[in-house]
Design a protein that fits this description.
The protein is α+β, with helices and mostly antiparallel strands. It contains 5 helices and 18 strands.
Length: 289
């Protein structure tokens, strides 16, 4: 046996080396589950699920992320969020969704949760090979919005938002006042319990231009769905204004959210995004922390 190995040790070494090299190539070609590849992004659009789906005909479009089926069910598109009525850009989002799926037979895919607190079905919607949730974000009519534990396609949706933002598509189009106003200070973590100290949570905007800016009808929004609409208000050149999460009397340098239901803080301590838009819905700034 020893003589055999001595005589064939070169061949045996080559075989062992081939196995090791083959294993390395195999492992290196396996996908990294933590990264978003172009292939993963494309699959969300061209590979509709073959299971866990039902069929419905879209009878009515409520807004850019909610529809009603012919059977009477209300369906909320998960993984995305679009402007609501009374905010900038809601009609464009609603009309685009209507153009895509109204009167058509679609497939509804459930993730983890069946219904939300409003008894709406939480679903991904497919029209043939088109992933509608993704399409709305890709075209700039919606932003990515995570609804844990329903996050099956969140990587692809987030990638679509990134593309839309970089190309300044739809809701990501820059307003004329872009670069004129900045966030000069952000206090997201109030002293003590944020929910009981709302006026210690605030964001400060500064007008860096040499002209006053009319901010009436502008909106400030976080990454979720909290929206503040500016009253009749001018921000003077090089002036600042603080927007507080609680209640108070507005002045030339202090504005208050003055919500009817003031149970909770606005800004997420662990990280959030400030979106400031003009009265036409143009994006003035996007500030993340």
């Amino acid at each position: 046996m020893k003589a055999f190995f001595e005589k064939n040790k070169i061949c045996i070494s080559i075989i062992i080396g081939a196995f090791i090299l083959g294993g390395f190539i195999y492992l290196s070609n396996q996908p990294n589950p933590e990264s978003v590849t172009q292939q993963e992004f494309n699959q969300a659009r061209i590979m509709p699920p073959s299971i866990t789906t039902s069929v419905a005909v879209v009878d009515y479009v409520v807004d850019g992320d909610t529809v009603k089926s012919r059977s009477g069910a209300t369906i909320r598109l998960i993984g995305i969020n679009t402007p609501e009525t009374g905010q900038p850009y809601p009609s464009e989002a609603k009309n685009k969704l209507k153009e895509l799926i109204k009167g058509k037979e679609v497939r509804l895919e459930k993730d983890i949760t069946d219904k939300d607190q409003y008894n709406r079905l939480l679903r991904y919607i497919w029209l043939d090979n088109i992933f509608i949730n993704l399409e709305m974000v890709k075209r700039g009519y919606a932003n990515s919005y995570t609804y844990p534990p329903d996050i099956k396609y969140q990587k692809q949706i987030a990638a679509a938002e990134k593309q839309a933002r970089e190309s300044k598509t739809g809701i990501w189009a820059l307003a004329q006042a872009g670069n004129s106003i900045i966030v000069s200070y952000m206090r997201a973590d109030a002293e003590g319990n944020d929910n009981y100290n709302l006026n210690d949570e605030y964001v400060i905007f500064k007008n860096t231009s040499s002209r006053p800016i009319d901010m009436a009808g502008w909106t400030a929004k976080n990454e979720a769905t909290h929206i503040f609409t500016f009253p009749s208000f001018y921000l003077a050149p090089n002036a600042i204004v603080a927007l507080y999460s609680g209640s108070g009397t507005n002045t030339t340098d202090k504005l208050y959210w003055n919500r009817a239901d003031e149970k909770y803080a606005i800004w997420n301590n662990s990280g959030d995004i400030v979106y400031l838009r003009d009265a036409q819905g143009g994006l003035v700034l996007e500030y993340g922390y």
